[in-house]
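Open question from group meeting: does this chain pack into something compact, or does most of it stay loose? Before anyone orders reagents, we agreed to write out a predicted structure and look at it together. Recording both the input and the output here so the notebook holds the full record.
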Amino acid sequence: MEFSIYNTLTRRKERFEPLDPTRVGLYVCGPTVYGDPHLGHARPAVTFDLLFRYLLHLGYKVRYVRNITDVGHLEHDADEGDDKIAKKARLEQLEPMEVAHYYTERYHRAMEALNVLSPSIEPHASGHIIEQIELIKMILENGYAYESNGSVYFDVRKYDEKYGYGRLSGRNVEDMMTNTRALDGQDDKRSPLDFALWKKASPEHIMHWPSPWSEGFPGWHLECSAMSTKYLGEKFDIHGGGMDLMFPHHDCEIAQSTAACGCDAAKYWMHNNMITINGQKMGKSLGNFITLEELFTGKHKLLTQAYSPMTIRFFVLQAHYRSTLDFSNEALQAAEKGLDRLMKAVDALDKINPAATSTVNPAELEARCTEALNDDLNSPLAIAALFDWVRTINQLAEGTGSITAPDLAQLKEIVHRYVFDILGLRNEKAVAGGNDLMSPLVDMLLEMRQKAKEDKDWALSDKIRDRLTAIGIRVKDGKEGVNWELT
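C-alpha coordinates returned:
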Protein backbone atom coordinates (compact mmCIF):
# COMPACT_ATOMS: atom_id res chain seq x y z
CA MET A 1 0.00 0.00 0.00
CA GLU A 2 1.38 3.41 -0.95
CA PHE A 3 1.36 6.48 1.27
CA SER A 4 -1.88 8.47 1.12
CA ILE A 5 -2.98 11.69 2.81
CA TYR A 6 -6.27 13.49 3.18
CA ASN A 7 -6.21 16.59 0.97
CA THR A 8 -8.33 19.27 2.66
CA LEU A 9 -8.60 21.14 -0.64
CA THR A 10 -10.22 18.25 -2.53
CA ARG A 11 -11.83 16.74 0.60
CA ARG A 12 -10.65 13.23 -0.15
CA LYS A 13 -7.83 10.87 0.64
CA GLU A 14 -5.26 10.85 -2.15
CA ARG A 15 -2.15 8.85 -2.96
CA PHE A 16 0.88 11.00 -2.29
CA GLU A 17 2.73 11.82 -5.50
CA PRO A 18 5.34 14.59 -5.03
CA LEU A 19 6.15 16.99 -7.83
CA ASP A 20 9.71 15.67 -7.73
CA PRO A 21 9.94 11.87 -7.23
CA THR A 22 12.83 12.22 -4.76
CA ARG A 23 12.22 15.58 -3.09
CA VAL A 24 9.31 16.93 -1.03
CA GLY A 25 8.53 20.57 -0.29
CA LEU A 26 6.66 20.95 3.02
CA TYR A 27 5.45 24.28 4.43
CA VAL A 28 3.78 24.52 7.84
CA CYS A 29 2.40 27.61 9.52
CA GLY A 30 4.47 28.05 12.66
CA PRO A 31 3.85 29.99 15.86
CA THR A 32 2.99 33.61 16.41
CA VAL A 33 5.51 34.57 19.06
CA TYR A 34 3.72 36.98 21.40
CA GLY A 35 3.17 34.58 24.30
CA ASP A 36 4.32 31.36 25.94
CA PRO A 37 3.91 28.18 23.88
CA HIS A 38 0.70 26.37 24.82
CA LEU A 39 -1.31 23.27 24.02
CA GLY A 40 -2.45 24.82 20.75
CA HIS A 41 1.18 24.83 19.62
CA ALA A 42 1.82 21.23 20.63
CA ARG A 43 -0.62 19.48 18.34
CA PRO A 44 0.45 20.90 14.94
CA ALA A 45 4.10 20.68 15.96
CA VAL A 46 3.84 16.97 16.81
CA THR A 47 1.54 16.22 13.86
CA PHE A 48 3.83 17.67 11.22
CA ASP A 49 6.92 16.38 12.97
CA LEU A 50 5.44 12.90 12.48
CA LEU A 51 4.83 13.71 8.80
CA PHE A 52 8.40 15.04 8.42
CA ARG A 53 9.87 11.94 10.09
CA TYR A 54 7.74 9.55 8.03
CA LEU A 55 8.60 11.21 4.72
CA LEU A 56 12.28 10.86 5.62
CA HIS A 57 11.66 7.21 6.53
CA LEU A 58 10.08 6.68 3.09
CA GLY A 59 13.33 7.88 1.53
CA TYR A 60 12.38 11.37 0.42
CA LYS A 61 14.70 14.34 0.70
CA VAL A 62 12.48 16.88 2.50
CA ARG A 63 12.76 20.64 2.66
CA TYR A 64 10.61 21.47 5.66
CA VAL A 65 9.83 25.17 6.07
CA ARG A 66 8.09 26.34 9.26
CA ASN A 67 7.70 30.08 9.67
CA ILE A 68 7.85 32.34 12.70
CA THR A 69 5.25 35.13 12.77
CA ASP A 70 6.86 38.05 14.54
CA VAL A 71 5.02 40.95 12.89
CA GLY A 72 1.63 41.88 11.53
CA HIS A 73 -0.50 39.31 13.35
CA LEU A 74 -3.73 41.01 14.33
CA GLU A 75 -6.28 38.67 15.85
CA HIS A 76 -9.79 38.15 14.47
CA ASP A 77 -9.36 40.65 11.63
CA ALA A 78 -5.97 41.22 10.04
CA ASP A 79 -6.94 44.85 9.39
CA GLU A 80 -8.16 45.83 12.85
CA GLY A 81 -6.74 45.82 16.35
CA ASP A 82 -3.25 46.18 17.75
CA ASP A 83 -0.16 44.14 16.97
CA LYS A 84 0.46 42.12 20.13
CA ILE A 85 4.25 42.17 19.82
CA ALA A 86 4.28 45.94 19.39
CA LYS A 87 1.84 46.39 22.27
CA LYS A 88 3.96 44.32 24.66
CA ALA A 89 7.10 46.15 23.53
CA ARG A 90 5.49 49.52 24.35
CA LEU A 91 4.25 48.38 27.74
CA GLU A 92 7.60 46.95 28.81
CA GLN A 93 9.77 49.51 26.98
CA LEU A 94 11.45 46.85 24.89
CA GLU A 95 12.40 46.60 21.25
CA PRO A 96 9.73 44.53 19.44
CA MET A 97 12.42 42.09 18.34
CA GLU A 98 13.38 41.54 21.98
CA VAL A 99 9.83 40.36 22.64
CA ALA A 100 9.78 38.20 19.52
CA HIS A 101 13.17 36.67 20.30
CA TYR A 102 12.24 35.92 23.92
CA TYR A 103 9.11 33.98 22.95
CA THR A 104 10.78 32.32 19.95
CA GLU A 105 13.42 30.89 22.27
CA ARG A 106 10.74 29.64 24.68
CA TYR A 107 8.96 28.00 21.76
CA HIS A 108 12.19 26.31 20.66
CA ARG A 109 12.81 24.95 24.16
CA ALA A 110 9.27 23.57 24.33
CA MET A 111 9.68 21.92 20.92
CA GLU A 112 12.98 20.38 21.99
CA ALA A 113 11.29 18.97 25.11
CA LEU A 114 8.59 17.43 22.87
CA ASN A 115 11.36 15.98 20.65
CA VAL A 116 10.11 17.94 17.63
CA LEU A 117 12.82 18.05 14.97
CA SER A 118 14.01 21.43 13.76
CA PRO A 119 12.70 22.33 10.30
CA SER A 120 15.06 22.67 7.36
CA ILE A 121 14.39 26.41 7.26
CA GLU A 122 12.66 28.61 9.84
CA PRO A 123 12.09 32.02 8.23
CA HIS A 124 10.80 35.02 10.19
CA ALA A 125 8.16 37.33 8.76
CA SER A 126 10.19 40.39 9.86
CA GLY A 127 13.16 39.15 7.80
CA HIS A 128 11.16 38.89 4.57
CA ILE A 129 9.57 42.30 4.15
CA ILE A 130 11.19 42.79 0.74
CA GLU A 131 9.76 39.51 -0.54
CA GLN A 132 6.32 40.47 0.71
CA ILE A 133 6.50 43.87 -1.01
CA GLU A 134 7.52 42.19 -4.28
CA LEU A 135 4.59 39.78 -4.03
CA ILE A 136 2.19 42.70 -3.54
CA LYS A 137 3.59 44.32 -6.67
CA MET A 138 2.86 41.16 -8.66
CA ILE A 139 -0.72 40.99 -7.36
CA LEU A 140 -1.24 44.69 -8.20
CA GLU A 141 0.18 44.21 -11.70
CA ASN A 142 -2.21 41.30 -12.29
CA GLY A 143 -5.17 43.45 -11.27
CA TYR A 144 -6.23 41.66 -8.08
CA ALA A 145 -5.36 44.39 -5.59
CA TYR A 146 -5.73 48.14 -5.24
CA GLU A 147 -4.08 50.95 -3.30
CA SER A 148 -6.14 53.13 -1.00
CA ASN A 149 -4.69 55.94 1.14
CA GLY A 150 -1.32 54.27 1.54
CA SER A 151 -2.71 50.78 2.18
CA VAL A 152 -3.07 47.94 -0.34
CA TYR A 153 -6.07 45.59 -0.29
CA PHE A 154 -6.78 42.33 -2.07
CA ASP A 155 -9.85 42.54 -4.36
CA VAL A 156 -11.78 39.45 -3.26
CA ARG A 157 -14.75 39.91 -5.61
CA LYS A 158 -12.59 40.28 -8.73
CA TYR A 159 -10.52 37.26 -7.75
CA ASP A 160 -13.65 35.25 -7.01
CA GLU A 161 -15.04 35.85 -10.50
CA LYS A 162 -12.13 33.96 -12.08
CA TYR A 163 -10.81 31.54 -9.49
CA GLY A 164 -13.37 31.22 -6.72
CA TYR A 165 -12.53 32.51 -3.26
CA GLY A 166 -12.97 30.26 -0.21
CA ARG A 167 -12.38 26.94 -1.97
CA LEU A 168 -10.44 25.49 0.95
CA SER A 169 -12.95 26.29 3.68
CA GLY A 170 -15.96 25.81 1.40
CA ARG A 171 -17.25 29.34 1.95
CA ASN A 172 -19.26 31.25 -0.65
CA VAL A 173 -18.60 34.95 -1.29
CA GLU A 174 -22.28 35.87 -1.48
CA ASP A 175 -22.99 34.15 1.82
CA MET A 176 -20.00 35.86 3.38
CA MET A 177 -21.24 39.25 2.16
CA THR A 178 -24.65 38.61 3.68
CA ASN A 179 -23.14 37.70 7.05
CA THR A 180 -20.45 40.39 7.15
CA ARG A 181 -21.14 43.51 9.15
CA ALA A 182 -19.59 46.85 8.32
CA LEU A 183 -16.75 47.82 10.65
CA ASP A 184 -15.49 51.26 11.55
CA GLY A 185 -12.21 52.25 9.94
CA GLN A 186 -12.74 50.19 6.78
CA ASP A 187 -13.81 53.03 4.49
CA ASP A 188 -10.64 52.49 2.45
CA LYS A 189 -11.93 49.13 1.26
CA ARG A 190 -14.13 48.52 -1.75
CA SER A 191 -15.69 45.53 0.01
CA PRO A 192 -15.76 44.33 3.64
CA LEU A 193 -14.32 41.01 2.41
CA ASP A 194 -11.17 42.61 1.02
CA PHE A 195 -8.14 41.96 3.20
CA ALA A 196 -4.97 43.96 3.71
CA LEU A 197 -1.80 43.15 1.83
CA TRP A 198 -0.11 46.27 3.20
CA LYS A 199 -1.26 48.62 5.94
CA LYS A 200 -0.18 52.23 6.34
CA ALA A 201 1.18 52.57 9.86
CA SER A 202 -0.40 55.01 12.28
CA PRO A 203 2.01 57.36 14.11
CA GLU A 204 1.95 55.23 17.28
CA HIS A 205 2.68 51.96 15.43
CA ILE A 206 6.31 51.11 16.24
CA MET A 207 6.82 48.26 13.76
CA HIS A 208 6.87 49.64 10.23
CA TRP A 209 8.92 49.57 7.04
CA PRO A 210 9.20 51.72 3.90
CA SER A 211 7.29 50.63 0.80
CA PRO A 212 6.16 52.14 -2.53
CA TRP A 213 2.77 52.88 -0.92
CA SER A 214 3.55 54.07 2.59
CA GLU A 215 5.56 53.56 5.72
CA GLY A 216 3.71 50.54 7.03
CA PHE A 217 3.64 46.80 7.57
CA PRO A 218 2.43 43.68 5.69
CA GLY A 219 -0.88 41.97 6.31
CA TRP A 220 -0.83 38.76 8.33
CA HIS A 221 -1.72 36.42 5.44
CA LEU A 222 1.02 37.67 3.14
CA GLU A 223 4.07 36.27 4.92
CA CYS A 224 3.32 32.59 4.25
CA SER A 225 2.70 33.16 0.55
CA ALA A 226 5.95 35.11 0.22
CA MET A 227 8.13 32.73 2.23
CA SER A 228 6.74 29.49 0.78
CA THR A 229 7.38 30.87 -2.72
CA LYS A 230 10.92 31.96 -1.83
CA TYR A 231 12.02 28.64 -0.34
CA LEU A 232 9.82 26.08 -2.12
CA GLY A 233 8.93 27.74 -5.41
CA GLU A 234 5.62 28.75 -6.97
CA LYS A 235 4.47 25.12 -6.72
CA PHE A 236 5.30 22.78 -3.86
CA ASP A 237 3.92 19.60 -2.36
CA ILE A 238 2.32 20.00 1.08
CA HIS A 239 1.02 22.94 3.09
CA GLY A 240 0.05 22.20 6.67
CA GLY A 241 -1.42 23.91 9.70
CA GLY A 242 -4.21 23.84 12.22
CA MET A 243 -7.85 23.67 11.14
CA ASP A 244 -8.43 27.07 12.74
CA LEU A 245 -6.26 28.58 9.99
CA MET A 246 -8.36 27.33 7.07
CA PHE A 247 -10.35 30.55 7.07
CA PRO A 248 -9.38 33.22 6.58
CA HIS A 249 -5.62 32.61 6.64
CA HIS A 250 -5.22 29.72 4.23
CA ASP A 251 -8.03 30.81 1.92
CA CYS A 252 -6.25 34.17 1.67
CA GLU A 253 -2.91 32.44 1.07
CA ILE A 254 -4.37 30.48 -1.83
CA ALA A 255 -5.88 33.66 -3.28
CA GLN A 256 -2.63 35.63 -2.97
CA SER A 257 -0.42 32.94 -4.50
CA THR A 258 -2.86 32.28 -7.34
CA ALA A 259 -3.34 35.98 -8.05
CA ALA A 260 0.44 36.48 -8.20
CA CYS A 261 1.53 33.34 -10.04
CA GLY A 262 -1.63 32.09 -11.75
CA CYS A 263 -1.61 28.67 -10.08
CA ASP A 264 -2.33 26.93 -6.79
CA ALA A 265 0.87 26.85 -4.75
CA ALA A 266 0.37 23.67 -2.72
CA LYS A 267 -0.68 20.35 -4.23
CA TYR A 268 -1.89 18.94 -0.90
CA TRP A 269 -3.32 20.78 2.11
CA MET A 270 -3.23 19.04 5.49
CA HIS A 271 -4.94 20.30 8.65
CA ASN A 272 -4.83 18.94 12.17
CA ASN A 273 -8.07 19.21 14.12
CA MET A 274 -8.69 21.29 17.22
CA ILE A 275 -7.97 20.56 20.87
CA THR A 276 -10.39 20.98 23.74
CA ILE A 277 -9.88 21.03 27.51
CA ASN A 278 -12.40 18.88 29.38
CA GLY A 279 -14.74 19.20 26.40
CA GLN A 280 -14.41 23.00 26.07
CA LYS A 281 -12.49 25.11 23.60
CA MET A 282 -9.30 26.43 25.19
CA GLY A 283 -9.44 30.15 26.04
CA LYS A 284 -8.14 32.56 28.64
CA SER A 285 -11.66 33.81 29.38
CA LEU A 286 -12.71 30.24 30.30
CA GLY A 287 -9.77 29.81 32.66
CA ASN A 288 -8.60 26.69 30.80
CA PHE A 289 -5.71 28.19 28.83
CA ILE A 290 -2.75 25.91 29.64
CA THR A 291 0.83 26.61 28.58
CA LEU A 292 3.25 23.78 27.93
CA GLU A 293 5.36 24.88 30.88
CA GLU A 294 2.32 24.60 33.14
CA LEU A 295 1.71 21.09 31.82
CA PHE A 296 5.32 20.07 32.41
CA THR A 297 5.31 21.48 35.97
CA GLY A 298 1.68 20.78 36.92
CA LYS A 299 1.24 24.43 37.98
CA HIS A 300 -2.28 25.07 36.72
CA LYS A 301 -5.52 24.89 38.66
CA LEU A 302 -7.01 22.32 36.25
CA LEU A 303 -4.06 19.93 36.58
CA THR A 304 -3.78 17.33 39.32
CA GLN A 305 -0.14 16.57 38.51
CA ALA A 306 2.73 17.38 36.17
CA TYR A 307 2.90 15.59 32.81
CA SER A 308 6.17 14.90 31.07
CA PRO A 309 6.82 16.13 27.51
CA MET A 310 6.76 12.56 26.20
CA THR A 311 3.40 11.95 27.86
CA ILE A 312 2.06 14.97 25.95
CA ARG A 313 3.61 13.79 22.69
CA PHE A 314 2.31 10.24 23.15
CA PHE A 315 -1.15 11.56 24.00
CA VAL A 316 -1.24 13.64 20.80
CA LEU A 317 -0.12 10.65 18.72
CA GLN A 318 -2.78 8.39 20.23
CA ALA A 319 -5.47 10.34 18.36
CA HIS A 320 -5.63 10.66 14.58
CA TYR A 321 -4.52 14.15 13.60
CA ARG A 322 -7.88 14.87 11.90
CA SER A 323 -9.92 14.05 15.02
CA THR A 324 -10.70 16.41 17.89
CA LEU A 325 -8.37 15.89 20.85
CA ASP A 326 -9.68 16.47 24.36
CA PHE A 327 -7.20 17.05 27.17
CA SER A 328 -8.18 15.92 30.66
CA ASN A 329 -6.29 14.66 33.68
CA GLU A 330 -7.85 11.22 33.26
CA ALA A 331 -6.84 10.98 29.60
CA LEU A 332 -3.31 12.21 30.26
CA GLN A 333 -2.86 9.80 33.15
CA ALA A 334 -3.97 6.93 30.91
CA ALA A 335 -1.45 8.09 28.27
CA GLU A 336 1.26 8.22 30.95
CA LYS A 337 0.58 4.60 31.93
CA GLY A 338 0.45 3.48 28.31
CA LEU A 339 3.75 5.16 27.50
CA ASP A 340 5.33 3.52 30.56
CA ARG A 341 4.16 0.08 29.38
CA LEU A 342 5.58 0.70 25.91
CA MET A 343 8.98 1.83 27.21
CA LYS A 344 9.22 -1.12 29.61
CA ALA A 345 8.63 -3.43 26.66
CA VAL A 346 11.41 -1.65 24.75
CA ASP A 347 13.73 -2.25 27.72
CA ALA A 348 12.58 -5.87 27.92
CA LEU A 349 13.92 -6.50 24.41
CA ASP A 350 17.44 -6.52 25.90
CA LYS A 351 16.43 -9.22 28.37
CA ILE A 352 15.23 -11.77 25.82
CA ASN A 353 17.45 -14.81 25.36
CA PRO A 354 17.63 -16.00 21.72
CA ALA A 355 16.51 -19.55 20.96
CA ALA A 356 16.99 -22.05 18.14
CA THR A 357 13.53 -21.43 16.67
CA SER A 358 11.03 -18.58 16.46
CA THR A 359 7.38 -18.70 17.41
CA VAL A 360 6.88 -15.10 16.24
CA ASN A 361 7.45 -13.16 13.01
CA PRO A 362 8.66 -9.54 13.48
CA ALA A 363 7.82 -8.74 9.85
CA GLU A 364 4.16 -8.81 10.85
CA LEU A 365 4.72 -5.84 13.19
CA GLU A 366 6.44 -3.84 10.49
CA ALA A 367 3.68 -4.61 7.99
CA ARG A 368 0.98 -3.39 10.39
CA CYS A 369 2.84 -0.18 11.33
CA THR A 370 3.58 0.59 7.68
CA GLU A 371 -0.02 -0.03 6.63
CA ALA A 372 -1.29 2.27 9.41
CA LEU A 373 1.04 5.19 8.68
CA ASN A 374 0.62 4.83 4.92
CA ASP A 375 -3.10 5.38 5.50
CA ASP A 376 -3.07 9.14 6.18
CA LEU A 377 -0.61 8.93 9.10
CA ASN A 378 -2.87 6.74 11.23
CA SER A 379 -0.66 6.86 14.31
CA PRO A 380 -3.34 5.35 16.64
CA LEU A 381 -3.37 2.14 14.56
CA ALA A 382 0.43 2.04 14.50
CA ILE A 383 0.50 2.41 18.29
CA ALA A 384 -2.15 -0.33 18.62
CA ALA A 385 0.09 -2.65 16.59
CA LEU A 386 3.02 -1.86 18.86
CA PHE A 387 0.95 -2.61 21.96
CA ASP A 388 -0.10 -5.96 20.57
CA TRP A 389 3.59 -6.74 20.41
CA VAL A 390 4.19 -5.39 23.92
CA ARG A 391 2.44 -8.53 25.17
CA THR A 392 4.53 -10.69 22.84
CA ILE A 393 7.79 -9.05 23.96
CA ASN A 394 6.91 -9.52 27.63
CA GLN A 395 6.09 -13.17 27.01
CA LEU A 396 9.40 -13.70 25.23
CA ALA A 397 11.25 -12.02 28.10
CA GLU A 398 9.51 -14.35 30.56
CA GLY A 399 10.41 -17.44 28.52
CA THR A 400 6.98 -18.02 27.02
CA GLY A 401 7.58 -18.45 23.31
CA SER A 402 10.92 -18.28 21.51
CA ILE A 403 12.78 -16.17 18.97
CA THR A 404 16.02 -16.68 17.08
CA ALA A 405 18.92 -14.24 17.29
CA PRO A 406 18.36 -12.85 13.74
CA ASP A 407 14.63 -12.42 14.40
CA LEU A 408 15.35 -10.75 17.74
CA ALA A 409 17.74 -8.30 16.07
CA GLN A 410 15.06 -7.56 13.46
CA LEU A 411 12.41 -7.07 16.15
CA LYS A 412 14.64 -4.65 18.07
CA GLU A 413 15.35 -2.66 14.91
CA ILE A 414 11.66 -2.42 13.96
CA VAL A 415 10.52 -1.40 17.46
CA HIS A 416 13.27 1.19 17.86
CA ARG A 417 12.65 2.61 14.39
CA TYR A 418 8.92 3.10 14.89
CA VAL A 419 8.97 4.11 18.56
CA PHE A 420 11.98 6.43 18.50
CA ASP A 421 12.71 7.45 14.90
CA ILE A 422 9.20 7.76 13.44
CA LEU A 423 6.86 8.38 16.39
CA GLY A 424 9.66 10.45 17.94
CA LEU A 425 9.25 9.18 21.50
CA ARG A 426 12.01 9.16 24.11
CA ASN A 427 12.54 6.81 27.05
CA GLU A 428 12.43 9.55 29.68
CA LYS A 429 12.92 7.23 32.64
CA ALA A 430 16.04 5.75 31.11
CA VAL A 431 17.42 9.25 30.47
CA ALA A 432 16.38 10.55 33.88
CA GLY A 433 17.71 7.51 35.67
CA GLY A 434 21.01 7.44 33.85
CA ASN A 435 20.33 3.87 32.75
CA ASP A 436 23.76 3.46 31.14
CA LEU A 437 25.37 3.89 34.56
CA MET A 438 22.56 2.29 36.57
CA SER A 439 22.39 -1.03 34.71
CA PRO A 440 25.75 -2.48 35.83
CA LEU A 441 25.11 -1.39 39.42
CA VAL A 442 21.69 -3.02 39.53
CA ASP A 443 23.03 -6.14 37.85
CA MET A 444 25.78 -6.36 40.50
CA LEU A 445 23.20 -6.10 43.30
CA LEU A 446 21.07 -8.78 41.68
CA GLU A 447 24.11 -11.05 41.47
CA MET A 448 24.63 -10.48 45.22
CA ARG A 449 20.96 -11.28 45.77
CA GLN A 450 21.24 -14.46 43.72
CA LYS A 451 24.28 -15.53 45.77
CA ALA A 452 22.32 -14.83 48.99
CA LYS A 453 19.47 -17.02 47.72
CA GLU A 454 21.89 -19.84 46.88
CA ASP A 455 23.30 -19.52 50.43
CA LYS A 456 19.71 -19.54 51.75
CA ASP A 457 20.29 -16.09 53.25
CA TRP A 458 16.66 -15.09 52.69
CA ALA A 459 16.92 -11.98 54.87
CA LEU A 460 19.69 -10.47 52.71
CA SER A 461 17.92 -11.52 49.53
CA ASP A 462 14.70 -9.80 50.62
CA LYS A 463 16.59 -6.74 51.86
CA ILE A 464 18.26 -6.18 48.46
CA ARG A 465 14.92 -6.60 46.68
CA ASP A 466 13.13 -4.22 49.07
CA ARG A 467 15.83 -1.55 48.85
CA LEU A 468 15.71 -1.65 45.05
CA THR A 469 11.92 -1.39 45.14
CA ALA A 470 12.19 1.63 47.44
CA ILE A 471 14.29 3.55 44.88
CA GLY A 472 11.96 2.70 41.98
CA ILE A 473 13.41 -0.55 40.64
CA ARG A 474 11.11 -3.57 40.44
CA VAL A 475 12.80 -6.99 40.58
CA LYS A 476 11.11 -9.70 38.48
CA ASP A 477 11.93 -13.38 39.07
CA GLY A 478 11.08 -15.49 36.02
CA LYS A 479 11.72 -18.88 34.48
CA GLU A 480 14.67 -17.54 32.49
CA GLY A 481 16.23 -15.77 35.45
CA VAL A 482 15.94 -12.35 37.08
CA ASN A 483 14.93 -9.14 35.27
CA TRP A 484 14.37 -5.62 36.56
CA GLU A 485 12.60 -2.48 35.43
CA LEU A 486 12.14 1.12 36.48
CA THR A 487 8.75 1.79 38.08
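Observations to bring back to the group:
Residues 277-430 form a domain with the Isoleucyl-tRNA Synthetase; Domain 1 fold (CATH 1.10.730.10).
Residues 73-81 have pLDDT under 50 and may be disordered.
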